[in-house]
Amino acid sequence: MEELLYEGKAKRIYGTDQEDVVRVQYKDSATAYNGEKKAEIVGKGRLNNEITSLLFSKLSDAGIPSHFIEKISGNEQLVKRVQIIPLEVVVRNFAAGSFSKRLGVEEGKKLSRPIVEFYLKDDALGDPLITDEHVDVLSLATADEVAELKAAALKINEVLGGFFTEIGVRLIDFKLEFGKDADGNILLADEISPDTCRLWDMETQEKLDKDVFRRDLGNLTDAYETILTRLGGQLHV
Ligand code: C5P
User: Fold this and answer.
1) Which atom of ligand 1 is closest in space to residue 174's alpha carbon?
2) Domain membership flag for residue 235
3) Distance from the CA of 79 to the center of ligand 1, in angstroms?
4) Is the ipTM of this structure higher than 0.95?
5) Closest by CA position to 223, among listed 233, 213, 215
6) CATH of the domain at 30
């Protein structure tokens, strides 16, 4: 039996018979507000696995590697083993969510340029927003690594934004995580899905992401299925 290495709110990570490869299993659980709001949504794990696998493959084709190796079942994928850097790297193109709340900017307002923010990955502290100086004095990453993370996040924003524009979806904001492989190289990791992005239909402004669950706006599965099918993925395999 493969060893369970880690269980998070949305995924389980198992070891494999290869030292540098782990198996990610996407769960059907939905959580928001740091775990305060919870639900089981049948099929959500599979949808996020399909969407993340598709997006990581497309990014790789566009010259942006990640930890992703291959999808091995409806709700599982193999990825390279990395040590996750404890930072949530958020890119914003339009005001929304905590940015709008914190700074009093109307949701949907286009920012004059994309911005990158860092949040400390720490559930007990509620993932606080932190500055480059906090990152430095807490030894979370070096100045060079911070520069590398920002540049990578902005590049990914350009490419990912292009994918979504092609399918009539506006990439409002999203969260990335990065890890270090055994050689110390920084690699894009975790997932990119409607759980971690804000995605609005360009025509109707309909929300096609986890805000549907956070704000009780309707059926999460319908929204995620819309993203998957527009990206060219298959609903049922
Ligand atoms: O809540 P906030 O506006 O800061 O979220 C910015 C983006 O990061 C959203 O797309 C949200 O889904 C994502 N995010 C995430 N995981 C978190 C916090 C935010 O995927 N823990």
Assistant:
1) 10
2) no
3) 22
4) yes
5) 213
6) 3.30.200.20
